[in-house]
Amino acid sequence: MARYTKVSSIGARPVLSDIDIDYSQTVEKVISYWKHELDQVLPDKPDIIVLPEGCDRPLNYPKLEKEKTEYYKNRGNQMLEFFSNIALNNNCYIAYSAIREAGDGTLRNSTQIIDRTGKVVGIYNKNYVVIEETTESGILCGKDAPIIDCDFGRVACAICFDLNFDELRLRYVKAKPDIILFSSMYHGGLMQNYWAYSCRSYFAGCVAGLQNTIISPVGEIIASSTNYHDFVTAMVNLDYCVVHLDYNWEKLKRIKAKYGPKVKLTDPGYLGSVMLSSETDEFTISDITKEFEIELLDDYMRRALAHNNNKMNVEP
Fold first, then answer.
1. CA angle, 40 then 35 then 192, to 5°
2. Helices (DSSP H) in the chain: which residue ranges?
3. Is 72 helix (H, G, I), strand (E, B) or coil?
């Protein structure tokens, strides 16, 4: 049964703020800046908006530890309250990424998921911080990788440097979220596409000042921001599965012959794997895979691995 979800990503550069103005004025400037940025995507009525890493940190603060500390103290929860009101008033989720003070007073680099009522329903703490984040800024590494339930599906988060570490990716491979939300100052290049395919998940890449991307579970860029627009919005269908063409060619032909446009086949080419999605309210993609005995990609890989691990099939 089609589960259409609209995803927006805003890759705005951090706001530039004069360091000689007081911190309350800086917070006001950041709020005004993000109000303008959000106004670019809110008319499309997205289900979720993804913001870049440290989105409320002024551009000229990273190396000014004293100023940065004082700014965060003054900011407190003002930005969280601002984004919560936006989410509530626009019936959307927001993935708000920022430096956050934990309950024990220590710092985390976090993505907070704000729901349609303005409440925080999940928090991801960056697992793999850059060394200087701890040694110079006192930010501790997160250790959990929660899957956060939203009314449209299940989301996971990654932040910037995280994209380099297989340990986190493999946790999401096992968990299979519907969408991975990537807030960053670093793009990651091919790693974005690989994470999407490896995890069989959509990937919403939100990178400050660089290309923002919505990537399919077969690693194909569906939509992206441009040099003219620092935001992107795309509709994705979360009722999908990924299958290999091996052993499924004829079955896929029969599916299209029977159901036509009610089932969509997306082939990125050269991969050998394709994505199937239900484009109707009449049935789910799971119904289709059962009806036609379609072998999912992960099941095929497990079967192939078992074959190769069987000593009878290995050279002496």
1. 60
2. 23-38, 65-75, 78-90, 131-135, 166-175, 190-199, 249-259, 285-291, 297-309
3. helix
**Beta-carbon neighbour count of residue 234 at 10 Å?**
21
Q: Which of 183, 229, 177, 172 is nearest to 202 (CA)?
A: 177
Tokens of 298: 């992960």
Question: How many Cβ atoms from other residues are within 10 Å of residue 213's Cβ?
Answer: 25
* 291 and 244 together in one domain: yes
- Whether the pTM exceeds 0.90: the reply is yes
For 212-269, the pLDDT digits (tens) are: 999 999 999 999 999 999 999 999 999 999 999 999 999 999 999 999 999 999 999 9
Nearest to 5 by CA among 147, 154, 124, 121: 154
pLDDT in tens, 79-98: 999 999 999 999 999 999 99
Assess whether 218 and 286 both reside in one domain.
no
Which residue, 237, 263, 281, sits at the end of a domain? 237
